[in-house]
Amino acid sequence: MLVSIGAGGYVAEIVLDHLRKTYGKVVAVDDLSLTVNDGEFLVLLGPSGCGKTTVLRAVAGLEELDTGRILINGRDVTRLPPGKRQIAMVFQSYAVFPHLRVYDNIVFGLRMRRTPGDEQRRLADEAAELLQIHDLLDRYPAQLSGGQRQRVAVARAIVMRPDVLLMDEPLSNLDALLRLHMRAELKRIHRELSTTTMYVTHDQVEALSLGERIAVMYRGTVVQDDTPARIYETPANRFVGGFIGSPPMNFLEGIVAGRGNSRPTVEVAGQSLELPARAAAALAARGPGHVLVGIRPEHIAVSLQPEPNAIAARVAVMEPVGPQNLLTATVGQQVMKVSVAVDFHPDPGQEIWLRIDPTRVRFMDAQTGNVIST
Fold it and tell me: With contact defined as beta carbons under 8 Å apart, do 49 and 156 qualify?
């Protein structure tokens, strides 16, 4: 029965074709192209001011583009008003009507569409069951928690049987535990409805947990578009590596040495790193020079004794963070974060040795921050 909520329309592909939007001299969206596949849950992720909400509002018809096209299921909707796009939107603020009961909030759009009363009741009941708010239908928003209000907002959107569901940071007003719970609920709802969904957030944990695909935005354009796993493991540049992950990726300054037919080496703080064959070949083709060595905190092993291919460092700070400790270490003038076991307790200032997993390293250009293909 639940699947029937989405059966009135069809899942839809969204094509964003060279979108550009400016506000005076400020470029909010800069020649952005992106496709959201049928039934996909795509997350637009980026810092404040990167243009992600502008893109979502353009898809909704709430922003007029300077140039570019928006197609939904092959239909050009660029100049269509919001009501003719077969979309529904859930906002950061719950935007529920305080003077209406939950039931009346849910069916508000259906009434505007002049849907018959028995159909309104059927769709509202199905949505309430899906969102687990059936026992709240006679209450007013003031009698609900923040999480319950957000469920009402989602229910009001899905009863419209949209081809596309747009969500603009819908969990940002909830506390940490409610966000955790609602993330799981949104994944469950999407699995049952399979509605094409675009979700905007600046929270990388939300993006990694919710998205089937993530489009990372920076300065008005998409800098990497991939699965959550690949975004995390193989960031395309320094910005993505430093934005995704908690704590984020470490970046150490290194120097590539070796000329001619000799196998190159990368030296960090006077210590040569072990290089896999593919990385060595890519760095050899690039030639000597400065690089950034990107490595996640969990891909570094720590020893209290010198080891081959390990970098000498000193303990700065230890932070307990639940199932592990977070170690801040200094490598010369550079700082690194390392995930260590909870029973590892070196003293501040103590010398340690860091062994970097060579298969997990991302080498990046020191000037541009872009990854060096390996």
Answer: no
